[in-house]
Amino acid sequence: MASKYRTAPAQSSKLPGGIPYIIGNEAAERFSFYGMKGILTIFMSTMLVYMPGGVLDEQMSESDVVSWYHWFVGAVYITPLLGAFIADAFLGKYLTIMLLSIVYCLGHGALALMGAQIPFMDEPLNPSFFFVLGLILICLGSGGIKPCVSAHVGDQFGESSAKVWMTKIFMVFYLSINIGAALSNLATPWLLHHYGPHWAFGVPGVLMAIATLTFWLGRKKFIHVPPGGMAFVREVFSARGIKAILKLSIIYLFVAVFWALFDQTGSTWVLQAEDMNRNWMGINWLSAQIQAINPVMILILTPLFGWLVYPAIDKIWPLTPMRKICIGLFIMAGGFAIIAVAQELIDAGQTPSIGWQVLAYAIITTAEVMVSITCLEFSYTQAPRKMKSIIMGFFLASVTVGNVITSLVSSVSVAPSDTQCLSEARDRIGDWMDEHDGSLPSAAEAQKLLEGLSAAERDQEPIYSLTESGFTIGLPLGTGATDGYGDGSFVYDATGGLERVDWPATDQLESGADRIESFWRTNDRLPSNEEGGDLLKGQTGPWGHQLVYRLLNRNNFSVGSPGPTDDLLSSTAVVLKASVVYPSPAEDANSWLSRRKAELGIESQANQTGEVTISREIEIGGQNRFQGAAFFWFFTWLMLGTAVVFVPVVWLYKPHTYYMEEEVEASS
Predict the structure, then answer these.
(1) pTM of the model
(2) 190 close to 284: Cβ distance less than 8 angstroms
(3) Fewer CB atoms near the end CB (10 Å): N or C, the chain?
């Protein structure tokens, strides 16, 4: 049966009629995605545990936040392969986009409902469950439509119109992405700060619904390339299909490292901005709002490069797509080096201006124009007709590879921790208490509950003991229970709340922290690493090892005991982390988080008394190998090395361009 929609573009040099609908859809969809994505880091690190139904003692560490963020982004960009396969083999791009857009909207709805109190339900909706559910649905929806939308743009062009419009429209397409991203990166952090997660995640959901409606309205204007069915499968696994995938995959492996750095603008850069002076151009910016600089600069640099820079360079030296990508990789390394230098200033106790990030954004956005936009168009032109979406899927999978690299580095950089074993034991005891009306298990019952748990680097099980006021969970610290080191334990009250940490070295660490605090009160600043080392000279832990001081930033420091193995990166190292806590500024007093903490009765002592205080917390193991600037320098050198290795690839790569009508004629 003949299709009621056009399946091939007309022989015309005019702008295809469906393009405005695609551009409008993309702007609204990108607002929804970047608005949600842009606040994930701040939400996970500061708000998730305070949601109704949340667990207050399950605060995520910065390493966990970074790892989770990049696993999510990585998942978003691997699902395009699934969406591309469905579109090219079975449903076609239009129907695939419509169906997955509905899934996308449901994901936003799940995020907006986290912790909501539904009528006729006793408890609020579990925030952790709905958070994960929402992210999964958004992965399927957003990721699934990505290759289809960009390939759908290319489908609207024949050879005649492509020569006139395709490069310009792909630039406009990328501009629409960044208009949506710029507006959302300004709006949703503000909504999150003042009105909380329901509004901040709900508004992007409304924009996604508008995007879906806009796309549906353009259905009669689009070119609907029919799915290839088994012909698509044969094309993918044909010699030509495999050759196209393998050739482009070589490029994508190098581009993946670019994404490993670039996507940290939504994670490590946001966390870094928390430690910077964010008063810029007379405005006090929220840390997540700084991300808006990138899409704004894209709006400026994309036309500048497209109509001025590239043509000027072409007159002197032919600027092929491969050369653009290579130059962009080198530029990216330079941008990340600036972030590493800024972090060195933070590590030294300074508060550098957010202008450091603005400068870095200008440089990495230049790199993005040369790498991402170029690779997007290049991927489409290098894909056979029936493989446009699947090739776009492989291009987007390079983002996944990059984010997996970042997530793995963040995870691997954290040393093993005995705290993880003890926390899991506490969770199992807590679950048992929930099922038994708050009563505590006996020693025998607890032993069964804790089966299978062991310390991070040794085969020793956690030990549960009942006390007059609650219970303790402990671990032997050496290779045996009678090695003379004694046991360490976490002490809980009858409700499962943590009362204190009883661990060898805690007294010595507290004494060392007292010396640091005394210096701070006298000098109104924390000591440098050298000054702190002098203050702790001769101070040792119970194992005879020198206590180690580290300045983390202007308001945070640590005092550590290397533990029985004399290694601060071991699972048994004991570290006291301290933070200078100031009363909340007047502009933050009415934020959603401040109001929520007041509701829960957990305002900081500084807010209660109006005085500056120092909070302290004990950690067992779990220290970071790539602390501070070392993390950023690692990625800077990784990017530079990748760019150098890519140079010979530029000279050896031989492209082959496919246009729609070229193949139609060839197959007729």
Answers:
(1) 0.88
(2) no
(3) N
